[in-house]
Amino acid sequence: MFCKNCGKELNEWAIYCPECGVATDKFQSAEKKQEEESNGIAIAGFVCSFFSCLLGWIFGGVGLSRANKRNGKGKGFSIAALIIATIGFFIYLETIL
Ligand SMILES: [Zn+2]
């Protein structure tokens, strides 16, 4: 592939141009993939929080820290997972006490 900024020929796997430093399409798709992944973790946490508060906390916590690094995508689901997991935990406490 070629740099879209300066036209220099690049490695197929290059994520940025060594000549001018502009990020390639590959870099952008890698970013996007990570973004989707953190969103997936947040949604997984949201779903798990209905069944297991521990899983909800783990996925919610991981999703939230990843969402903070990746422009807040999946933050809502992560927070919802943490809240539902916490409510679930109190309901569980009520039933065993
Ligand atoms: Zn370039």
Describe this structure as you would to a colleague.
- The longest helix has 24 residues, at 25-48.
- The chain is rod-shaped and about 70 Å long.
- It has helices at residues 25-48, 53-69, 75-96.
- The protein has 97 residues and is mostly helical.
- The protein has a domain at 34-96.
Class inferred from helices and paired strands? mainly alpha
Number of separate strands: 0
Number of distinct helices: 3
First and last CA, distance = 64 Å
Helix content range of the residues, please?
A: 55-70%
- Averaging pLDDT over every residue, what do you get? 86
Query: Quaternary arrangement of the chains shown?
Result: single chain
Poorly predicted segments? none
The radius of gyration is 20 Å
Outline the biggest β-sheet.
none
Helix/strand order: HHH
Shape: rod-shaped
Short characterization:
This protein has 97 residues and is mostly helical. The chain is built from three helices and no strands.
